[in-house]
Amino acid sequence: MTERKNYTFVLVGIIAALTIAMFISVFASSFPDGLEKVAENLGFIGNSREIVPESFFLIPDYTFRAVGSELWQVSLAGMSGVLIILAFFGIIYLIYKAVNKKR
Amino acid sequence: MHIPDGFVDLKTAVFTGVISAGSLAAAIYKVKRYFKTKVIALMGVMSALIFALQMINFSIPGGTSGHLLGGALAAIILGPHAGAIVIAVVLIVQAFVFMDGGVTALGANIFNMAIIGVYGSYFIFWLIRKISKSKVNFFISTAVASWLSVIAASFFAALELGISGTYAMGVTLKAMVLVHMIIGIGEAIITVAVIVFINKVRPDLILTGEGSFE
User: Greater confidence, B33 or B22?
Assistant: First the structure.
């Protein structure tokens, strides 16, 4: 497998992830999910507790608060999530390369 | 089905936390054996993609929605060990950045979606795949494994709620499994679609080698 071909799938994958997280996410259904619905129906949704204060979270509830528009709040939240995850694996990638070069 | 804080009690949180941490440690140990740049790159792309797909809630009848969990998708493409790590990373980022899934329920959520969802679906996939190595059976195995993985994850989520005393075990189990039997259909459709696509353009990216047929 050539290096070039690997760059292609990484690039295509990143573009796909960003497109879905930024532009398709705004069309997502806002109905409660399966667990929330069951919790509502059975009446234990009120058991949900905020153990960690909301101010601790960078982007609570997928709402990027720095912008006003609701659509952009979701879009930028999605973009941030994708980039955070890519950054995490990017760091592992770089560490792996650095360690293997030394050997 | 990200469990929020307050739904699971301390003993359930600690117990699932310990099992999840242990399973992930074992997964990391196993993955290190075949770790190379291509695997890391694919893990990163899959993790980002599954995070993005998890944002897309689709409506099901009854004013409910569901979204992809991605356990079967990750397991079939990356193998169960790398797959579990990928889903766990998504869940950790969701819990600590997006307030999606409780911080104290993280162990339970990782157990349901990254351990049961990934290893469970891979086991079912492997079992059905034993019948035939044909292309058709590859897609059947993928569909059944992804559908069942959602049901299994919801079963364990309900079990944890029951053990925590949040609500009566039997009622919760029935309600959770029933609604996720429908949500699981969405999971199966999306998983098969993504795998058909990858199998067509880059079968070598299905690292489990299942994308080649006899």
Answer: B22
Measured between beta carbons, which residues in chain B are less than 8 angstroms from residue A30?
Answer: 57, 65
In this structure, are residues B179 and A37 in contact, taking their beta carbons and an 8 Å threshold?
yes
ipTM rounded to 2 decimals = 0.94
Enter the pTM of the model. Answer: 0.96
Do the Cβ atoms of A81 and B66 come within 8 Å? no
Angle at B37 between CA B32 and CA B43, to 5 degrees: 75
How many C-beta atoms surround the C-beta of residue B128 within 10 A? 18
* Closest residue in A to B58 (Cα–Cα): A29
Q: Which residue of A has its CA nearest to B32?
A: A96
Partner residue opposite B172 with nearest CB, options A16, A37, A42: A42
- In B, minimum Cα distance to A62 occurs at B98
Q: Where are the domains of chain B?
A: 10-205
Level-2 CATH architecture, domain B10-205: Orthogonal Bundle (1.10)
How near does any CA of chain B get to the CA of A10, in Å? 6
Closest to B30 (Cα-Cα) out of B130, B118, B95, B161 = B118
Calculate the alpha carbon distances from A48 to A19, B73, B80, B152, B156 in Å: 32, 30, 31, 23, 18
In this structure, of A4-18, B90-104, B146-160, B179-193, the range with the lowest mean pLDDT score is A4-18
